[in-house]
Design a protein that fits this description.
heterodimer; A: alpha/beta; Spore Coat Polysaccharide Biosynthesis Protein SpsA, Chain A; 8 helices; 7 strands; about 40% helix; about 15% strand; globular; B: about 130 residues; about 75% helix
Chain lengths: ~240, ~130
């Protein structure tokens, strides 16, 4: 594979991921050696920051837990100020395949897109969410695709690549509550282009989703509400 | 003059005095006191001028005029809590920006060779 001629930053949000963060950083370094890596430690109570630092990542630590939205935004602020061309979000729990980072970045550049989302549902992968969750995801997909007029199958995927324009926008403005879904709506309102590519995601190396099946319905209603509120916002 | 009138006049005077005292002692910022003072003044006016209370109540179709006092008080409480929600949201945004800036600055200092002690630096653990 030819070397990518862009300044690439991989942003890894992490909250109490000491068990998996070392492996994630190592895997990113292996598959995307040209990338700089920043781990945003969202007030972890464990040794996440230390492990990430020793694995060779730059670590930005929040004083207290601020949630995934603020955590991603800290990463984007870092990317924007350091002038990176492309930023790739990779979860700290090890479910995102580092070997697909280059695929996302190449798609972003070739497709002249502002954001490329890695989807679990486009490819052949064996990702099998619970019934409640897959129903919720299907509904998000329908609603978001209709709203932004681009088909997005995996709206909650946190594995995505952002171009320079998008980095600057996220650095100034990033949603707090359900950032993956809401960011798509905000970008659409901003007139940015969004693409989706298939990726195969593995089971989490450690930890659990912040969303338990029991809370799925409640979560779904809140996200749908947030989508419509976002449509009313000024961007 | 009815007891209720005397009661609500005294009540609104006490509220007014407390708010002014809090401002004087720096416990309350002027800009967060406006709604409180306005509610005290309006309730006082409605309590002193019984004809005013009666005519507004009649115009609104409220059979028992003193309940207008409760309605007015309730509306002010609603406005005040809504105001608080807005203020909290703005504070949340500012607080987040400061905390993010702190994380970025700590890293910048570390890269400049200055180690910052304290929670969240990520280096204090073995």
């Amino acid at each position: 594979m030819k070397e990518l001629k862009v300044r690439l930053l991989v942003i890894i949000p992490a909250f109490n991921e000491e068990a998996s963060i070392g492996g994630v950083v190592a895997s990113v370094r292996k598959y995307a050696p040209e990338a700089d890596i920043v781990v945003v430690n969202d007030g972890s109570a464990d040794a996440t920051a230390d492990v990430a630092g020793r694995a060779g990542a730059t670590v930005l630590s929040h004083l207290y837990n601020m949630g995934i939205g603020a955590t991603m935004q800290t990463g984007y602020k870092y990317a924007s100020r350091a002038g990176y061309d492309v930023a790739v979000q990779v979860d700290g729990d090890g479910q995102h395949p580092a070997e697909s980072i280059r695929f996302l970045v190449e798609t972003l550049i070739k497709g002249r897109a502002d954001l490329v989302v890695g989807s679990r549902f486009l490819g052949e992968g064996d990702y099998k969410p619970s019934l409640a969750r897959s129903t919720g995801m299907a509904i998000f997909s329908k609603v978001v695709s209709a709203v932004i007029k681009v088909k997005v199958t995996d709206t909650t995927s946190g594995f995505r690549a952002a171009g320079k324009r998008c980095i600057d926008f996220f650095s100034a403005r990033y949603p707090d509550d359900y950032p993956e879904v809401e960011a798509l709506v905000l970008l659409h309102k901003k007139g940015f282009s969004i693409m989706e590519v298939p990726v195969t995601m593995s089971e989490r190396a450690s930890g659990r989703s912040s969303i338990t099946p029991v809370k799925s319905v409640y979560y779904m209603v809140k996200v749908l509400l947030a989508i419509f509120v976002d449509l009313l916002k000024r961007v | 003059m009815y007891y209720l009138q005397i009661f609500s006049i005294i009540g609104s005077l006490v509220l007014f005095a407390i708010v002014i005292d809090f401002i004087r002692r720096g416990l309350l910022k002027e800009k967060y006191s406006v709604l409180w003072l306005a509610s005290a003044v309006v309730i006082m006016a409605l309590s002193v001028k019984k004809e005013l209370l009666d005519s507004i109540a009649a115009w609104l179709g409220i059979a028992y005029p003193p309940s207008l006092l409760f309605l007015v008080a309730f509306i002010f409480v609603l406005l005040i809590t809504l105001h608080f929600s807005v203020v909290i949201s703005l504070l949340h945004e500012k607080n987040k920006a400061i905390a993010q800036e702190l994380a970025l600055m700590k890293n910048a200092l570390k890269e400049a060779g200055i180690e910052v002690q304290g929670k969240g630096g990520g280096q204090e653990r073995k």
